[in-house]
Amino acid sequence: MEAISYIMKRQDIKDLLESKEFDQPVHTKGWIRGERGNAYVRFLGLNDGSSIQNIQVVADAEKFDENLRKRFNVGAAVSVTGTLVESKGKGQSVEIVADQIEILGDADAEQYPIQPKAHSMEFLRENAHLRSRTTTFGAIFRLRHALSFAIHNYFNERRFYYWHSPILTASDAEGAGESFRVTNFDIDNFDSIPKIAEGENKGKIDNTEDFFGQPTNLTVSGQLEAELGALALGRVYTFGPTFRAENSNTARHLAEFWMVEPEMAFYDLEDNMNLVEDFLKYLIKYALDNYRKDIEFLDAKFVKENSQKKKEERAEMGLIEKLEFVLANDFKRITYTEAIDVLLKSKHYKKGKFQYDVKWGVDLQSEHERFLVEKHFKTPVILYNYPKDIKAFYMRQNDGEEAGKETVAAMDVLFPGIGEIVGGSQREERLDRLQARTDEMGITEELWWYLDTRKFGTVEHSGFGLGFERLILFITGMGNIRDVIPFPRTPKNADF
C-alpha cells in the first residue's frame, strides 16, 4: 500500500485484501457488486477491478441515514472511508467498518442489467459495455492484460525488437483476398467516385484517385513487413490487431482479432518449433504464477459446466490440470504425412465418425486436429511439413519430395480443446522459388519490395503467428472466442 500512496489517495482493494495492518484507517473506492443486511446493518461487496475478490464493507445503520442506505444498490459507485479489521465471517480475512460512504454514481436497481445472478453468455454479449463488471469477465480481462505483458516481457528478455507493422496496407499476406477495403471515396454518392475513362477497364473505379493511390485494406497479418525487420535487426515481433472479412459465425472466428508474430533471421524450422514451445509454456506459467486466483475461479466454472455436458463431450481434465499438463510434457512433433497415417488407421476413421474426409493433401479440420491431440497423443502436437498446395506462397519448399507430394517447411501447433493455436513456417529465402510462387498467384508486381529482400543478403529465416484470443480461450477455459475480447467484431455486429 505504501508503494502507491504517493500516486493515489485511495487504496486498491487488492492491497487491502492482502493487508495485515488491522485497526488502521483506510480509504477506497469501487462499485457495489452485492449487498445484503437488515434494518440495523448493511453488508456491501465492493470491487474496484484490482482483484477477483470483493471486500466487505460493514455499514452500521446508526451511521448512515435511510435515504443514503436506499442508494446502496448493485452497480453504484461509492467512496468508503473506515477501519480495516480482521473479519470473523467465512470466505474473507478482512473487512472495512465504514465511517463514511459517499455515493459517486447511482445505479437504479430496476434498470441496471448486471444484477448478482446467473446470466447467459449471450445476454452478456448483448451488454458487452457492462459485462466486464462481472466476476467472470473481470478475471478474463485481467488475464488478457497479464498475457499481453508476458508476451512483451518474453521477447524483450530474448532481445527481440517490437516491430510496428502497418494496419493499413496494399498487400494481402495470406493471398486469400478476404480483407476489408479502405477508401476515402464518398461511397454514398457513387456517381462522384472517379472512373477509368478508357481502355479495357473503362467504367471501373479509378483507384489512382483514392487517398493512397491504389487499392488498400486493413491488414490480415503483419508477417511480410516483420520479415523486413528480421532481415535487418535479427529478431523482431509484431503484436497488434488484424482483420479478416470472413463471413464466419463460429465460436472460433472473429473479424477483428490480435496476432503475435515473431520473425527471426538465421532460424530454420526446428529452431522455430523450439521457440514456439518455449514461448507457449512461458505464457501459461506466467498466468498460473501471477493470476492464480482468477484461474482458480475460472477452473471451478469450467469444471461445473463440463459436468453438465454429455459424457462423450466432456473434457478429461479440469482447467488448471490441463494447463499444468501442458507445462509438464514435451510437445509431440510429427509430420503431416505421419498424422494422416494415424488418422486413417484410427478406429474413429474406420467407424466413420469424422465428418470431413481424410486423405493426403487435404487441409485438416478441427475435428482431425483435436483427435490427434485429445484422443491419440493426449498432449500438444506440432505438425510440420504440410502439402505445398494448401499452404501460403512464402513457405519454404522442401527438397527431395516425391512427385505429387511436394511439401513446405510449415508447422501448426495443436492444443486440446482448441485445435490449431499457432501457424508458422520457415520462409522461402530463394528468390527463384519464391518468385515462381508469386508469379503463379499474380502478385509479383505488388510484392516487389518483399522480393527485394531475397536479392540483397538473403538468409534462412522463420516465424509464426499466435492468435492471441485462441491463447486466452485455452488459458481461461471459455468456449467462445467472443467472450475473451472486450468488444467482439463478427458479421452484422459492430456495436459498442
From TrEMBL:
Keyword Nuclease present in the record's keywords: the answer is no
Note the Gene3D superfamilies from the entry. Bira Bifunctional Protein, Domain 2, Nucleic acid-binding proteins
Determine the domain of life of the protein's source: Bacteria
Taken from the record, one Pfam family name reads tRNA-synt_2
Question: EC number(s) per UniProt?
Answer: 6.1.1.22
Catalytic activity of the protein = tRNA(Asn) + L-asparagine + ATP = L-asparaginyl-tRNA(Asn) + AMP + diphosphate + H(+)
- Give the keywords, sorted: Aminoacyl-tRNA synthetase, ATP-binding, Cytoplasm, Ligase, Nucleotide-binding, Protein biosynthesis
Q: What is this protein called?
A: Asparagine--tRNA ligase
Organism taxonomic ancestry: Bacteria, Pseudomonadati, Bacteroidota, Cytophagia, Cytophagales
